[in-house]
Design goal:
The structure holds two protein chains of two kinds. Chain A is mainly alpha-helical. Chain A contains five helices and two strands, in the order H-H-H-H-E-E-H. Chain A folds into two domains: 49 residues; 80 residues, GHMP kinase, C-terminal domain (Alpha-Beta Plaits), CATH 3.30.70.890. The longest helix of chain A has 34 residues. The radius of gyration of chain A is 17 Å and the shape is globular. Chain B folds into two domains: 176 residues, Type I PLP-dependent aspartate aminotransferase-like (Major domain) (Aspartate Aminotransferase, domain 2); 135 residues, Aspartate Aminotransferase, domain 1, CATH 3.90.1150.10. Chain B has 15 helices and twelve strands. Classes of the chains: A mainly alpha, B alpha/beta.
Chain lengths: 130, 385
């Protein structure tokens, strides 16, 4: 019990310490959306100081993938939802397909099966479809 | 039974008086000897007096090979061809029939052709399939010599089917297991009397040593040992040490190279400049199901053969443009290598057989190495444009 207690308090301290940086990222994200700056948007979604350091441990080869994606033309990279899916943001369908294939090839060469989805971001927000 | 990975590292079981963890290289050509009663003997009770006969460093390698192939014992030879020629000369009977597929490493075919006229045996060449091999076997057949994954078009021959249909006990099956390695296949467990490797390829794995091995049962290896002694076809101790060093990483190398090869085969299969990809790991390959049934792991080897759309000039240009992949013979090393099949491995297959087998002048054989798979794909991509 005492072990669990101390671990929780260490994590809490870390969250408190990293919170300003994460809030700054959210600010950057909102500003990027406001001015339509996709590069800044990618930078913002790639900068998570609270959740990513912990969840990334559950995604095989996560940091390799992030490095590979960002060096292959992706503007942003992070964990999708709770994982283990990951996402890249690119400024063209061609770049997205190319980055995705590089990531899938890398995982396959390590014996990890992966599926690639290349899609556009919805521009019209939420709609009721029935 | 230990895992192959553990056997590859510790299977030499060498122990010297100093407690060396790594087997020493015994370069001594000669050892103290008065007579057989007072001689020093190896672990298999052969006298150690002269390296051409028995050498402790070779023994360390031979023990690893035997344990990986799950045989009683093994012998190390100067090259794959030294292992093959010594084995054929020991086992072939004059006036008997020797069966080989029309496709295999063509220097082996060349050797058998030359020996058949000198030693007066009948060489019967058949289509590389289990059914054709079985149909050709009869009571007069002394040897069936085959690769399970053929070189260079990567056809898979169902060794299980061949084993189930051997007509009599005088027929022996010799399998060259170089392409598949004991990671994918242990032919002696199915029926092969001898399992042969060019250790130059995957077992040594670093493109820096030539060697061969034969693995088999105690009596067969004992008899073949005498032929190795007479013919002087043994491996040298320093080379044996290099193989022993390389073999420790066989499992991780072969697995990674095979996974790289799978990704590359899938990439080439979609490429507009590629006419055909031959790789048993592709689900569209006619050999996929049999490979899946036969192989011990969900891997399909690290060689990919493919035909490029273009004439000889285009192919030469393509090979010259490659920056990471090197144009060179051989396979199974850490470096990715590419060769024109008709000018290298299949050179001594007669043109008519090459045509039937689909070994055209635009067929390339790529041995996939340990490099990053995306770097290899980028290299192929820029060279194909």
């Amino acid at each position: 019990m005492s072990h669990h207690g101390s671990l929780t308090s260490v994590n809490s301290v870390r969250v408190v310490v990293e919170a300003p940086a994460s809030i700054a990222s959210v600010g950057k994200l909102v500003h990027a959306l406001h001015v339509g700056d996709l590069s800044l948007f990618g930078e913002a979604v790639s900068s998570d100081f609270v959740v990513e350091p912990y969840r990334s441990r559950l995604v095989e080869y996560y940091w390799d993938l992030k490095k590979l994606a960002l060096s292959s033309g992706a503007l942003g990279f992070n964990i999708a939802g709770v994982g283990p899916s990951v996402f890249s943001i690119c400024d063209s369908m061609e770049k997205a397909g190319n980055t995705g294939r590089i990531l899938v090839n890398y995982l396959k060469s390590l014996g990890v099966e992966a599926k690639l989805y290349v899609t556009r971001i919805l521009r019209h927000g939420v709609r009721v479809i029935r | 039974m230990r895992h192959d990975r553990t056997i590859a590292v510790h299977g030499h079981m060498e122990e010297d008086v100093y407690g060396s963890i790594i087997p020493p290289i015994y370069l001594s050509a000669i050892f103290r000897f008065i007579d057989e009663d007072h001689a020093i003997r190896s672990d298999r009770n052969f006298v150690i007096k002269y390296t051409r006969e028995e050498n402790p460093t070779l023994r360390a390698l031979e023990r690893v090979i035997a344990r990986l192939e799950e045989t009683d014992d093994a012998l190390a030879f100067a090259s794959g061809m030294a292992a093959i020629s010594t084995s054929i000369i020991k086992y072939v009977e004059s006036e008997s029939k020797v069966i080989v597929p029309i496709e295999m490493y063509s220097t082996t075919l060349q050797l058998l052709e030359k020996l058949s006229s000198k030693l007066k045996f009948k060489l019967v060449k058949v289509w590389p399939s289990a059914k054709d091999i079985v149909e050709a076997m009869d009571r007069n057949t002394s040897i069936v010599f085959m690769e399970v994954m053929t070189n260079p078009t990567l056809k898979i021959i169902d060794l299980k089917y061949v084993c189930e249909n051997i007509p009599n006990e005088n027929t022996i099956i010799i399998v060259d297991n170089t392409f598949t390695t004991p990671i994918l296949l242990k032919p002696a467990k199915l029926c092969a009397k001898l399992v042969i490797h060019s250790v130059t390829k995957y077992l040594a794995g670093h493109n820096d040593v030539i060697g061969g091995v034969v693995a088999g049962a105690y009596n067969d290896i004992r008899e073949l040992w005498d032929w190795r002694r007479i013919m002087g076809t043994l491996q040298q101790p320093f080379e044996a040490y290099l193989v022993l060093r390389g073999i420790k990483t066989l499992d991780v190398r072969f697995e990674k190279e095979s996974r790289n090869a799978q990704v590359i085969a899938e990439y080439l299969n979609e490429h507009p400049r590629i006419e055909e990809v031959m790789y048993p790991g592709l689900s569209s390959s006619e050999y996929h199901d049999i490979a899946k049934k036969l192989f011990l792991r969900n891997l399909y080897g690290a060689v990919v053969s493919f035909k490029v759309k273009g004439d000889r000039d285009y192919i030469v240009r393509f090979m010259k443009k490659l920056k990471i992949i090197k144009p060179a013979p051989s396979l199974g090393g850490t470096e990715s290598l590419i060769s024109i099949a008709s000018a290298a491995a299949a050179k001594y297959i007669p043109p008519e057989d090459r045509r039937r087998l689909g070994i055209t002048d635009n067929l390339l054989r790529l041995s996939v190495g340990l490099e990053d798979v995306n770097d290899l794909i980028e290299d192929l991509s820029q060279a194909l444009t």
